Amino acid sequence: MTVALAGRAPATFEIKSANLPLLALLLKSSDLKLLAAEMTAQFGNQSDFFDGEPLVVDFSFYPDEAPALTALEFTALLQLLRSYRMAPVAVKARREDLLAGATAVGLVPAQDAFLGNVVAQPARVERVVETVVQEVVREVPTPVAGPSTLVVDKPLRSGQRVYARGCDVVVLAMVNQGAEVISDGHIHAYAPLRGRVMAGARGNTEARIFALNLEAELISIAGIYRTSETPLPDEVRGRPAQVRLDGEKLLIQPLKA
């Protein structure tokens, strides 16, 4: 015999599923000292760079032969990430020893659903939606603002930093050595560029750097960087140039009229 009981929704809370946008740190080495050094080279002393964004520690590219991190190493890793205001909340790994170590320090195993995968809808529904959207666009034309661009028109001295979060940046004044220009999109520099310059800071591999006078001490796109330890070629040093990614290589090319 089936018995139906009356239900009552709680007045103070609800439980619902949620897909959250998360950053992912693809950890490729167990050498945490090297990791710390490379993060310093990439982000400097920018303690507010990630603004508390949630993060998945992803071991998908971790070498199979590398030893698992110890509890102390996991703790040190989390402290390093939090020093840049990342908020590690989850772990993704095939190896049980890595999962066990990560969960022991409070990370949650990340499933595909947790990472917000999109479920495809039936084609018939998609066609109907497209038709409705087209009708709305035809009947009610609405101007759409383009992406914002940050404009820097004052010189940047050593120790100063500009970050164009979620947009491009146009630099109209000199960037001195020790200064930093960071953008999630492209960087356009119309004055001498002598500091640290980072485009595609959050992983945009299509971002580029355009400079009329390229003398940067560090150049980076989507985490791939080059420092002044490798001098710029004569054909681009102090000249108009563009920087872009080709796979995992930085291409620095002269800009010609």
UniProtKB/TrEMBL annotation:
InterPro entries: CAP/MinC_C, MinC, MinC_C_sf, MinC_N, Septum_form_inhib_MinC_C. It holds the Pfam family MinC_C. Residues 13-88 form the Septum formation inhibitor MinC N-terminal domain. GO terms for biological process: cell morphogenesis; division septum assembly; regulation of cell division; regulation of cell septum assembly. Gene3D superfamilies: 2.160.20.70, 3.30.70.260. The keyword Metal-binding does not apply. Residues 151-252 form the Septum formation inhibitor MinC C-terminal domain. The keyword Flavoprotein does not apply. Keywords: Cell cycle, Cell division, Septation. Belongs to the MinC family. Cell division inhibitor that blocks the formation of polar Z ring septums. Rapidly oscillates between the poles of the cell to destabilize FtsZ filaments that have formed before they mature into polar Z rings. Prevents FtsZ polymerization. Interacts with MinD and FtsZ. This is Probable septum site-determining protein MinC. The gene is minC.
